[in-house]
């Protein structure tokens, strides 16, 4: 389940990302059309959407690697289009793949990269991570002295993560972060994300096609489709906003029952059910629409032309 962090409520003063009316055009094609959202310190934000929705363009604009066509963007208090080296030292990027040098040893590479962040250490944020501590965080302690070319695919992915956060960033961008991870490594990585957000107060923005992962990790989910935001909220909030029926399942006198609640909250039905004969009811279960159900429904609405998209005011998405 996503964390319920103290920063989840958020205020204007702890805004790390502020985007208002972001637009991007390539030639005659509009890729982003009036995107508005924000992110707070310590928040885990998932950016979802089908291929071509504008996710990569949005992330590259936030990272300062691409100039926007219009709109205002503030990342860590600066316009990323004009971010200097001190600003960039506060940001970590974990790409889908990193062109590494196979003859480097893991510890040597992290020591080397960490030195670039030392000049940007502050009294409140020491940089970089201690290498041994970082190796422990990403689960590479036993492989610290191995050459990169001898690591497995999952171990290389852990190294990608270590490289992305070696400077102890305040804002971390994760692109398909657990690709190549086995289930155990994926769970360890989820714990790492929670630690970075909860104990380091890092803001984390991730893109993934693994909707179950987004549902587990993210405090808030933004769904992009056709260049605009079609949903912005927690997984539970998005599910409640959809008209998808909730299912109530239970066993009574040895028989399994299923009831679809198409309107309102299923709590009322459950209350009435238990009031009738609570002792006979067992294995009670309420199933709401999953994030996958919600995602597919929203994207299909856009593709069919039912949703033209509208952006809430910035003060609303930051509240």
From TrEMBL:
Keywords: Antibiotic resistance, ATP-binding, Nucleotide-binding, Transport. GO terms for molecular function: ATP binding. SMART domains: AAA. Residues 17-251 form the ABC transporter domain. Its main location: membrane. The keyword Membrane does not apply. It comes from the Bacteria. The keyword ATP-binding applies. InterPro entries: AAA+_ATPase (IPR003593), ABC_transporter-like_ATP-bd (IPR003439), ABC_transporter-like_CS (IPR017871), ABC_transporter_ATP-binding (IPR050763), P-loop_NTPase (IPR027417). It is a peripheral membrane protein. Belongs to the ABC transporter superfamily. This is ABC transporter ATP-binding protein. It comes from Georgenia halophila.
